[in-house]
Amino acid sequence: MKRVGEVTNRYLINVNTNTDETRAIEPPPSVEECPMCKGARHLRVDVPYGHPFFGRLLPCECLTREQDERAFTELERFSQLDPFRHKTFENFDPKVPGVDKAYNYARKFAQDPQGWFVLIGAYGSGKTHLAAAIANYALANRNQALFTVVPDLLDHLRSTFAPASDVQYDELFERVRSVPLLVLDDLGTENTTPWAGEKLYQILNYRYNEQMPTVITTNRPLGNVDDRIRSRMSDEAMCEIIQIQASDYRPKKMGERLDKRPRKPQYRR
């Protein structure tokens, strides 16, 4: 997954390699200067009249970094990862029977997010842990990601209609549907109102059309998922679906998950 700044930086390099020079706009006196743009935050390509880049302003790397950092911070604040910060690949137990395939694919997906990844499993089977681990991995590598529980996401969207809301609906909706990596936990546990179904469809349909990396967990059979969403999940070229067969391992201690055989009593000498 490429960072936003990488695209802009490559574009600026292309301009330079085509022998076009850049010169900085004179910055306001109070703006902190950077070595490249001298504090103007933008660069103007120094080309003759009639050139496609004539008069065009390009964002400087310092502005791009600032915008990326702001977007990263806002997504981190809105994300519901705080209760799941400890959910990583390192403390997931891949030897639990039935989770190895999901674990291996989740690690592969985290390193190179492509397409959709759907995890289906019962409560306590580890699907939320793996989904949170993917999001935590992205954030640890300074990539933009949003982890949200589906019913809570819909509640947040509804709350933007309140007069006292400090976030506009359009702003929040756009942030969710266009985030570079979206992790939706517990699809199917939301109230199945027409409004909720339509919002989820709009988000996922956009991401499907744009082929944006998306992780979805659910404990419901796919037959219970909205037909429009299930149709997109069935695209094998776009979506990997893994059914976790493991049972609920929460009541077990870590050492008890690996070996179900009764332990021999230990005697002190």
Task: State the major sheet.
Answer: 5 strands, parallel
Mean pLDDT, rounded to whole units?
78
The share of residues in extended strands comes to 5-15%
What's the multimeric state? single chain
CATH class of the largest domain: Alpha Beta
Which superfamily, in CATH terms, is the homologous superfamily of the largest domain?
Answer: P-loop containing nucleotide triphosphate hydrolases
Model regions low in confidence, pLDDT < 50 over at least 5 residues: 1-31, 256-269
Summed up, the helix count is: 9
Task: List the helices and strands in order.
Answer: HEEEHHEHEHHEHEHEH
Order the strands across the largest sheet as they lie in space. Answer: 5-6-7-4-8
The CATH architecture of the largest domain can be named as 3-Layer(aba) Sandwich
Derived structural class = alpha/beta
How many beta-strand elements?
8
> Percent helix among the residues?
25-40%
Q: Radius of gyration over alpha carbons?
A: 24 Å
Structure, described:
The chain has 269 residues and is of the alpha/beta class. It folds into 2 domains: 4-60, no CATH class; 74-254, 3-Layer(aba) Sandwich (Rossmann fold). Helix content is 39%, strand content 13%. The chain has a 5-stranded parallel beta sheet, with helices on both faces. A 3-stranded antiparallel beta sheet has the order 1-2-3. Strand 6 (182-185), helix 7 and strand 7 (214-218) form a beta-alpha-beta unit. The longest helix is centred in the N-terminal third of the chain and has 18 residues, at 61-78. The radius of gyration is 24 Å and the shape is globular. The chain starts with a helix and ends in an 11-residue tail after the last helix.
